[in-house]
């Protein structure tokens, strides 16, 4: 059930897209802005990785998978996405909340 709609795209109450296939890069920038994240050249490849990983595996990557897949350390991910990195990245990537995220 949609709790919010941005540009015709439905979002759940906890801020994740209802339909991940509706994602666009333009929408990613709007979600990032709403999360107070500057989606720059340092952050976009992480979001792109998370999305590709979700499409390949059917589950959103957790923090461990993100560090393995991007080659970044946990501290680096927290520096780029200070509040709940895996969850914030999932929101921006238009994919469901990773398992184990609060």
Give structural notes:
By secondary structure, this protein is mainly alpha-helical. Helices cover 47% and strands 6% of the residues. The chain is built from five helices and two strands. The chain has a two-stranded antiparallel sheet. Strand 1 and strand 2 (9-11) form a beta hairpin. Helix 1 (25-34) runs antiparallel to helix 5 (85-93). The radius of gyration is 12 Å and the shape is globular. The protein starts with a strand and ends in a 9-residue tail after the last helix.
Numbering strands along the chain, what is their spatial order in the largest sheet?
1-2
Total strands: the figure is 2
For the record, give the distance between the C-alpha atoms at the N and C termini, rounded to a whole number: 19 Å
Helix fraction by DSSP (H/I, runs of at least 4): 40-55%
Which regions are unreliable across 5 or more consecutive residues at pLDDT < 50?
Answer: none
Shape: globular
> What integer is the average pLDDT?
93
Class computed from helices, strands and strand pairing: mainly alpha
The percent range for strand residues is 5-15%
Radius of gyration of CA atoms, rounded to a whole number: 12 Å
Question: What is the H/E string?
Answer: EEHHHHH
* Biggest sheet character: 2 strands, antiparallel
Number of helices: 5
List the SSEs and their pairings.
Layout: E1 4-6, E2 9-11, H1 25-34, H2 44-57, H3 63-70, H4 74-80, H5 85-93
Antiparallel strand pairs: 1-2
Task: Tag the structure with descriptive keywords.
mainly alpha, globular, two-stranded antiparallel sheet, 102 residues, single chain
